[in-house]
Amino acid sequence: MAYGLRINNDSNEIIVDSDFKHYHFAGKGQFLGSFVTPDIIGGNVTDHSYSGSTTISSGQNVGTVFRFSLSARATSVSPVPLVFIKTHSSARMGHIMTKRDGQNWEFWILSDQTGTPDIYCFLPLDEMSTASATPASGETHGIATFSSSGARTYDSRIKPLNIVGNVTVPAAPTSARTSITANYNPNFAPNTQTSTTFSYPNSQVELMYCCPSISHACQEVSVSNSGDGFQPQGAYSYFYAWARVDLWWGFYRNTYRLTTVNNQRTVVSGYTPYAFGHVWKSVEDSSSILGVLTAVALSFATFGASLLTLGVLVTTSVLVSSFTGVAADSGLYYPYSNDTRNRGEVNPMLLAKWSQYD
């Protein structure tokens, strides 16, 4: 640094550097609305096939996605805001998406409860809206720094971001559900979570956390059924054979909760359902009584190819119709089977105090 200002604390950590763009409080996220991802359901039933469940288990609850916006001066090369979620003792939440909308930002927060969360957003001064980057009337004292190009990089009057602690979030559970019974109405409700304790004064309870959700999981179960028989038709009979395959799945995102357990600060990590689905395909073939022997010999051989093409049912047209009128992006929410992604990634959680910005 040829010129400028640098301030270090007594641990020789840099607090202010005029060459750095420091994050400042850009405002609370403005609530846009919420949605629950609808169940993705679709299939066909032939005349003679099993015609059982075509629903999702009533014991499953999909998490609520809360949408927020932030006025800004964003461009295609802008850094993303840091989003802090105000902690709630009982709700587990995860920041699952950030996207730019013109010059503004939009955030999605997934919660396992229905209460609307509070989020606090931080940006460099030149990325904030003009109103947010302007000191309040009467604020005439403080410290402001500028880069060599004349851009304001720090201003004590705009409430700089103050990190009061951090903790490494424990890895999400190995699966969203430890056991799934293959039946006609499986339940995918999560039943495991992990936790870790960290040092922080219990007397300071006004914590909010910044920790984007990166781990996700998919659990699925499938059931196959088949049968055959004779169907009278006037003076004749015909032979029929049928088969049906069902596929149920749940898609989850990692969510977090700050709490106190045995007088120790604890961060809890688990999965919250984002979407459920059930699709099925039924196929049938028949022949006259004169062809019965041939049909018996070939029926399931000819069905084999059809039974292995369950995936063709989950098409764009089915999904788009499922999302009609819902504020969620249409897409394929069956990404993979019985697996997790990014589960073991080290995910740091930043801690700040919301009371400093209210």
Largest sheet: 6 strands, antiparallel
Q: What's the end-to-end separation, in Å?
A: 35 Å
Count all strands and give the number.
Answer: 20
Fraction of residues in β-strands = 35-45%
Number of DSSP helices? Answer: 2
Q: Average pLDDT across residues?
A: 80
Helix content: under 10%
Record the strand order, biggest sheet. 3-10-7-15-20-13
Give the SSE string. EEEEEEEEEEEEEEEEEEHHEE
Looking at the structure, what is the overall shape? elongated
The structural domain count equals: 1
Descriptive keywords:
358 residues; mainly beta; six-stranded antiparallel beta sheet; 44% strand; elongated
Describe the structure.
With 358 residues, the protein is mostly beta strands. The protein has one domain. It is 6% helix and 44% strand. The protein contains 2 helices and 20 strands. The strands form 5 sheets. Strands 3-10-7-15-20-13 form a 6-stranded antiparallel β-sheet, with no helix packed on it. The longest helix has 16 residues.
Summarize the structure.
This protein is mainly beta and 358 residues long. The chain is 6% helix and 44% strand. It has helices at 292-307, 316-322; strands spanning 6-8, 14-17, 23-28, 30-35, 40-43, 64-70, 82-86, 93-101, 104-111, 119-124, 144-146, 152-155, 165-169, 193-198, 207-210, 216-233, 236-261, 264-288, 339-341, 347-353.
Q: What is the topological layout?
A:
Blueprint lengths: L5 E3 L5 E4 L5 E6 L1 E6 L4 E4 L20 E7 L11 E5 L6 E9 L2 E8 L7 E6 L19 E3 L5 E4 L9 E5 L23 E6 L8 E4 L5 E18 L2 E26 L2 E25 L3 H16 L8 H7 L16 E3 L5 E7 L5
Parallel strand pairs: 5-18
Antiparallel strand pairs: 1-2, 3-10, 4-6, 6-9, 7-10, 7-15, 8-9, 11-12, 13-20, 14-18, 15-20, 16-17, 16-19, 17-18
